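Q: My labmate handed me this sequence with no annotations at all. I'd like to see what the chain might look like in three dimensions before we decide whether it's worth expressing. Could you predict it?
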Amino acid sequence: MEDNSSRDETKDIAIDEVESENSSAGSQSDEPQVTKPKTSRFAHLENINFNFEAYDQDICILGSKGSGKSFLANTIMKSLNGISVWCYDFNFQFHSSRAIVVHEMDELLEMYDKAKRGHWIFQPHNNSENTFRRFCAEGFKSPNNVLTNSKHVFAFKLNLESDVKFLEGFLGSDVWVLLPPDKRHKLRDEPQLEEHTFFYRDMDTHEGAIGKV
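A: Here is what I predict for the chain of 213 residues:
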């Protein structure tokens, strides 16, 4: 007796393929195909829960030129009510109605010595290394002005793979999303970040979030 099971099985497969092709053709002709935009797995984290305790916590803001660092830093500075702030603004990008802008280091020291508090934006006419070193030395004299570790990290878009590899050791592999997709070694399926978008992480937590200024 001849075994036709293999033939029948082959016929069934062939029929299934024809039906599948007809079904696909029918679905394509019934209505146009709509390509859905790629969504990021970070999308649900856009609402940043940012609680900053001045003098007890550090903030680190980094990113490529024009990515939004100064805008975010300026926004944070304006929200620090009753907190003394020194800002070294050699690009003349910071502004606040509550801040005093000075251009000479001696002037800053003299005025701050009298006031003992306030927001101070130092926009040096002489933006030399010595000027910056002096600014840091004077600002770091007082206790509680400098902390060793950053609790809050805001990372804007980056262009160099070496920068991302360095950050990965601190923030985890999620930072690869900061590079354009064609330059990434990881998270290549994640869409490219929009302009002025950043990756934020509270270092006391295990994951970061995406925000925008």
